[in-house]
Amino acid sequence: MTTPDGHGGGTAGFPAADPFSSAGAFPLPSTLSHAVTGARYWLPPQAAPAPSAAPAPPPVAFDVEAVRREFPQLHREVNGRPLVWLDNGATTLKPRQVTEAVGEHYARDTSNVHRGAHALARQATQVYEEGREEAAKLLRTRDTGEVVFVRGTTEAVNLVAQSWGRANLGVGDEILVSTAEHHSNLVPWQLIAAERRARVVPIPLLPDGRLDQDAYRDLLGNKTRLVALTHASNTLGTVPPVAEMTALAHRWGARVLVDGAQAVCHFPVDVTELDADFYAFSGHKVFAPTGIGVLYGKREVLEAMPPWQGGGNMIDSVSFGRTSYAPLPHRLEAGTGHIAGVAGLRAALRYLGSLDREAATAYEERLTAYATRALSAVPGIRLLGTAPGKIGVLTFLVAGADPMELAGLLDRQGIAVRAGHHCAQPALAAYGVTSAVRASLAVYNTAREVDALTSALYEAVGV
Hints:
4-stranded antiparallel beta sheet; 14 helices; alpha/beta; 463 residues
């Protein structure tokens, strides 16, 4: 790609100048110096990408315009410009099916669920449990008892930490947590580790954002009780080899929790194939409302966990002398759940299931490659996280530009991105930075929107 100032672009989605070299505006931080060279345990050497003169938009094999028609918010203006929503890593927009489902629940079908004797209670319960079935279908488990409704990924991780962790962690035990994690898959482990006098041990990163598999293999041991992994990093876009890492952890008798918040929207997930003990995601990251999410757990693991919260819905019988608990999954769902949220989740997952997931994933991969190549050509830009197979998360810095000010400039042109630490401060610290801009893609984004972002960045750097 030739930029407006006549400079050539990078090759195959990577900057022309190596952002991890020891020279230039962005030297390699000492925190990543351990991983400059050397063979990687699980990952075969990557072939050098073929040079490309110019990025080509993804071919039209997926009807993105048909998808966009289902999302009303994409057809509004911000600051007098058409909205370009590139903040999907924070939350996805909602298709009309979801807003209609939530509105219908409150306008016509309001009722509590379970145990109701009237028609509306039975109807609401049916919708609620169909939402659970859709979540089980999404994760490809046949056992709906392994699907626990929570407020989101954060609550799911806290539930596991406070229930499984309190029952199973002891003095000197170790919890391995990848450096790429969102704070919601780190802070709960720090809290329970402090209480149980266990240790949280970081799995380091390679310069391109992959998890260092050699280091991971060396960190595993007899003291390892749990491994916490992202399925797709919200800051670097990295998709780790979760199945292989889980298999290694299981050899040492450790449990594995996978944060799938950024994964389920971008590619199909099979928890049976991954063999993870726990898998969590948030509804609002997959076109559903906020305040609803899912914790998957293997039945034998969930059944051995004591309740985290007590109250209604999670009991079988209660007396002052003895209380017995309901079977899974209700034993871990104290109180009235987010019923309208589940109605929205059911609609969102049915909408997602109506798409050709293989075609949608391929479209996103092509769009990510196009965006990576286009952004790499912007003078002074530094992309954080260039691992092969990453999702459409493009976190970057522009030399001489404050991330918050740059995001504000983009907003004035109707382009919504995020700036800050992205609730992933250890990941950014590995690159020697505390803040960055993040543009994150979803299935409804287009090459035209990528072009708008790129053009705005050229303008920002004075080209």
